[in-house]
Write a structure and sequence with these properties.
By secondary structure, the chain is an alpha+beta fold. It has 3 helices and 3 strands. The chain has helices at residues 3-13, 43-54, 72-78, and strands spanning 18-22, 28-34, 64-70. Helix 1 (3-13) crosses helix 2 (43-54). The longest helix is centred in the middle third of the chain and has 12 residues, at 43-54. 24% of the residues are buried. Belongs to the BolA/IbaG family.
Length: 79
C-alpha cells in the first residue's frame, strides 16, 4: 500500500474531498483530508467517514492512519 493509493481511495469515497497522505514505511500513514462532508460533525464521525473509504485495508494493509480532518472553511483559516 502506498500513500498515493490511499489518497485516491479517500478522494473517490468522499466526492469533492482533497487528501494529502504521507507514509514512508508503507503501513503507517498520516493524512490531512478536507471535505464539505465534515461540516457539523465531531472528529470521531469525521474519522469514521475516512475509514469507511478504506474498507478492509484499515487494520490489514494500513496498520495506522493519523488523521487531520477539516472542512474547506476550517482549512482556509489554518492556511
Amino acid at each position: 500500500m502506498n500513500a498515493d493509493t490511499i489518497r485516491q481511495m479517500i478522494e473517490a469515497g468522499l466526492p469533492g474531498a482533497r487528501a494529502q497522505v504521507q507514509g514512508e514505511d508503507g503501513v503507517h500513514f498520516e493524512a490531512v483530508v478536507v471535505s464539505e462532508a465534515f461540516a457539523g460533525k465531531l472528529p470521531l464521525a469525521r474519522h469514521r467517514l475516512v475509514y469507511a473509504t478504506l474498507g478492509t485495508q484499515m487494520g490489514t494493509d494500513i496498520h495506522a492512519l493519523a488523521l487531520r480532518t477539516l472542512t474547506p472553511e476550517e482549512a482556509s483559516r489554518t492556511g
